[in-house]
Amino acid sequence: MNGVVMMKIVALIAAAGKGKRMNTRISKPFIPIFGKPILAYTIEKFEKCKLIDKIYLAVSPEEKELCRKNIILKYNISKVKD
Asked: What CATH number corresponds to the domain at position 61?
């Protein structure tokens, strides 16, 4: 080895906002803009970043499956880990 240390970089995205002040039934991260949830735009930016190895999402437990189906699978996200 040449003495170079390769660091793993992990992104943590906090996305558990409820949007109570917005008076909406949809949690803020899942509000669509141009047909796509706000959270999907954020995740895609980290997904495309070559420096990021893994992405962890802090979402509410009741929205974890919703996030997986409507964002992770739908937009072919591979760096998000449990």
From this structure: 3.90.550.10
